[in-house]
Design goal:
mainly alpha; 15 helices
C-alpha cells in the first residue's frame, strides 16, 4: 500500500525513507529476507538521487546486514562492502560509516582477513561515541555483532555476555532483522555451552531457550522460509536438554535440512555442528561425523 501511494502521488522525496522501512523493518516478517534486498538497494540509489543522504546511508548499511544474514559467503560480503564504501564515504554520514566499518571488520575477521578499523582503541572510541550520544540502536547492533563474532570463534561465554547486554536494549532495534538473529545466536550459544560442558543448563538459561522457542515458532508461521530452520533448531536443543533424544534427533535433522533448502548456508553449518555433537553424545559416531562434515 505504501509503495502504491508513493507512485500515485509522485512523492519521490519520501521514497528512500519508505524503502528503508519496508526493506529493513517490515519485509522479512512477511516474505523471504533475500527478496527484501532490492528495497534496501533502491533506498540507497534513490536517496543519493533525491538528496536524502541519511536514508541512503541507512539503506546500504541495512543491505549489508541482510546480505550477511542470508548466508552470503564471507568473501562475497567483503566484495560488496568494498564496492559501496567509496559511495558511502561521500555521503558524510559519520555514524553510519562507523557502523558500516565495524561490521566490515566483523566479517573480515571471520574470513581471516584484516579489517579497516586500525585497532581496538579506535573501535572502542567509536563505541564510546555512541554511548555518549545514547545511540542505543547502534550500540545494540554492535553488541549483537560481538555476540555473533564470539560465538563463531568459539568464545561461548563472551557470546552470551554480549547477548545479555544487547537484550537490555533490544527495543532499540525493534522490527529489524537483529531481533530474530539475537534470539537465534543466543540459543546457539546456550545449547552449545550445555553440550560442551556436559551439564544441564541453569533454570534461567532453560527459560531463555524456551522463551526463544516460543518467539521463533510464531515467526516461523509468518515466514517459514526465514525462520523455520531456526525454530526447529531451538526446539531440538530444548528436547535434547530435556532428554527427549528421539524427538531431538528428528528435529535436528529437520532443522539442518530446512536451513539448506532455504539457502542459509551459515545457519546450516552451525546447526549441523551441534547436531553432530548431539549424535556423538549418543555414541552414534557415524551420524555424528556426517553432521560435522556438513559444518565445514
Amino acid at each position: 500500500l505504501a509503495l502504491k501511494l508513493l507512485e500515485k502521488y509522485g512523492a519521490d522525496e519520501l521514497k528512500a525513507k519508505v524503502y528503508v522501512i519496508i526493506g529493513g523493518t517490515v519485509h522479512h516478517w512477511t516474505a523471504p529476507v533475500k527478496e527484501g534486498l532490492k528495497y534496501l538497494l533502491e533506498s540507497y540509489t534513490i536517496g543519493i538521487e533525491s538528496g536524502d543522504y541519511s536514508f541512503a546511508a541507512y539503506g546500504i548499511t541495512s543491505y549489508m546486514y541482510a546480505l550477511f544474514f542470508i548466508g552470503t559467503p564471507f568473501e562475497k560480503v567483503i566484495e560488496a562492502f568494498d564496492s559501496f564504501m567509496p559511495g558511502l564515504e561521500k555521503l558524510h554520514q559519520k555514524s553510519c560509516l562507523q557502523e558500516y566499518l565495524l561490521w566490515f571488520d566483523l566479517v573480515s575477521g571471520l574470513a581471516g582477513r584484516k579489517g579497516k578499523v586500525p585497532g581496538e582503541a579506535d573501535k572502542s572510541a567509536i563505541v564510546q561515541q555512541w554511548r555518549d550520544a545514547k545511540d542505543l540502536n547502534r550500540l545494540c547492533i554492535h553488541e549483537i555483532g560481538e555476540m555473533i563474532s564470539a560465538y563463531l570463534n568459539g568464545r561461548l561465554g563472551d557470546s552470551l555476555e554480549s547477548g545479555q547486554r544487547a537484550e537490555k536494549i533490544l527495543d532499540a532495534v525493534m522490527g529489524q532483522v537483529f531481533i530474530s538473529q539475537h534470539c537465534f545466536y543466543q540459543s546457539l550459544a546456550l545449547v552449545a555451552a550445555a553440550f560442551r560442558s556436559g551439564r544441564s543448563p541453569s533454570r534461567g538459561n532453560m527459560k531463555s531457550l524456551c522463551t526463544g522457542m516460543k518467539k521463533m515458532k510464531k515467526w516461523s508461521t509468518l515466514v517459514p522460509e526465514n525462520y523455520r530452520h531456526q525454530y526447529l533448531f531451538i526446539a531440538a536443543g530444548v528436547d535434547a536438554l530435556k532428554k527427549d533424544m528421539v524427538q531431538a534427533a528428528i528435529l535436528f535433522e529437520s532443522a539442518v535440512n530446512a536451513a539448506a533448502e532455504n539457502g542459509f548456508v551459515h545457519d546450516e553449518a552451525m546447526i549441523a555442528e551441534l547436531a553432530g555433537l548431539f549424535r556423538l553424545s549418543l555414541n552414534d559416531a557415524e551420524t555424528g561425523r556426517m553432521y560435522l562434515s556438513r559444518s565445514f
